[in-house]
Amino acid sequence: EQTETAVNERDSYITQAASSLLPGTLASKSVAMVLLPDAKAEDADAITTQLKSAGATVTGRVSMTSTWVDVSRENYRSNLSGQVQGHLGSASSQDANGILGEALAKALTANDDSSRVLMDMLSVDKAGTPFVTVDSTPTGPAEMIVVVGPRPQAASAKGATVEASPGQDPKAWANALAGTASRATTVVVGSADGDDNVVSVIRSEDAKVTTVDSVGQVAAAVSVPLALVATIGGARGAYGFDDGADAVMPPAPGRG
User: Do 246 and 210 form a contact (C-beta atoms < 8 A)?
Assistant: First the structure.
């Protein structure tokens, strides 16, 4: 009970501090929300609340499916990446997942025929599961992207973190989201509590993506707007409490 009280008091403090720190930091900015498989809608909602407190508009919400990481669909990813390149103009990524990640970024942040074609290509798959499902239709192009990953998987009886689902390559997320970040300001908030969790993978692969760990906690939700501000300014960082974090929270705007 004492621990629960302490956590509640900490979260209350963070929330009140955020109400003074965040307003205006993302004024007139637009953000698209992207959920990874098994991410909780309530975590995305909590982050959305803080983004709005910072002055941002959330344009819409889409979900990425396991098609991005299923080993059995590697050839399909390779084939589709070749098809989307003609709609990208040019791609900085060298692998299929990175190119598809760039395609997602353009689909969410541009407003032209190519971006609409890309969204159709990612969200329609007659042979199986598409790459993306649309949860809330975007009202317009976004300037930035926030990707929300799942919380840590349940621990086994011996206390070890459950391994990735069979037939999936978690490292594929690092390539895909690095592609997204290469084309649009992107922050990934998720878990680094285990080798196969999305933030752990991004950090271990040294992918050029800003990350925030401890998804589901108030501190993580408050850090996301600040991480976007820092990333816009050219500072890619790893924020939070878990392995690979280089700071507990992003710097407050104007304070370095």
Answer: no
- Position 23: which residue type? P
**Cβ atoms of residues 197 and 168 within 8 Å:** no
Q: How far is CA 24 from CA 19, 53, 61, 97, 168, in A?
A: 11, 8, 22, 35, 41
pLDDT tens for 3-20 read 655 555 566 657 767 667
Relative orientation angle of helices 96-109 and 171-183, to the nearest 10 degrees: 40
What are the beta bridge partners of residue 187?
146, 210
Give per-residue pLDDT as tens, 196-216.
999 999 999 999 999 999 999
Please state, in angstroms and rounded to a whole number, the distance separating the CA atoms of residues 185 and 226.
12
The pLDDT tens digits for 25-68 are: 999 999 999 999 999 999 999 999 999 999 999 999 999 999 99
133/104 Cα distance (integer angstroms): 12
Strand 132-136 and strand 144-148: the pairing is: unpaired
Rounded-to-integer distance, Cα 193 and Cα 216, Å: 13
Q: Parallel, antiparallel, or unpaired: how do β-strands 144-148 and 210-212 relate?
A: unpaired
Kindly give the interhelix angle for 74-88 and 96-109, rounded to the nearest 10 degrees. 50
Tokens 């508009």 correspond to what residue?
Answer: 57
> 162 and 154 in contact (C-beta within 8 Å)?
yes
HSE of 178, CA atoms in CB hemisphere, 13 A: 20
